[in-house]
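Task 17 of the worksheet. Students: predict the tertiary structure of the chain below and write it out as structure tokens. Keep your answer in the requested format; marks are given for formatting as well as content.
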Amino acid sequence: MKVAVIGATGYLGGAVAAEALRRGHEVTAMSRNVAPSEALAGANFVAVDLTDVDALTTAIAGHDAVVVSVTDRSTGDRSIIPAAAEALLDALPRAGVARLLFVGGGGSLHSPAGTRFVDGAAFPPEYKAEALAQADALHVLRTDTSGADWTYLSPPPHNLIPGERRGGYRVQAGDTPMTNGDGEFSITSGDLASALVDELESPQFSRQRFTAGY
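Model answer:
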């Protein structure tokens, strides 16, 4: 499968690109600033500007799917996250690309009380703006009327652990985090990436949000 990964030089985007390469997929690593890395040896690197839909359309043409994992912590302008969803919904049909997989946030998942974690007093304030922007991107996808085949993956609202694949994770559709028997949630970045590539290879959650955890 030929996969474009936008944000491939970032934390989760890089993990997804590496996992896709490990499984034998052809990966085009896309980012605003092209910076080839040894971790993604074997990928093609392409600079892409998410604000230029015509250029974005050209860049993703010929791929079977697009994975996007973006933020802009360097400037504090989180508007790039929902803007990426809007731009890709515009570009995908023009480029003839069938699928969009969006690596989103976990703050908009619902707690047992039925409220979003991001709206709770205990949610870390330094992550709130990004969590709200990720929620906006999910809204963009859910209100799409084009029929695009999108999927949105949320990590747990916290306890996303940097680390390699462990296996044993589970997935489910919906707005509540995947928890273990004690009501706790966690997953490594490697396993979150693996869950995303599983969905790429064997789709289960077309036009849905899904979550992953142990």
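Marker's comment: The chain has five helices and ten strands. Helices lie at 11-22, 53-60, 80-95, 125-142, 189-201.
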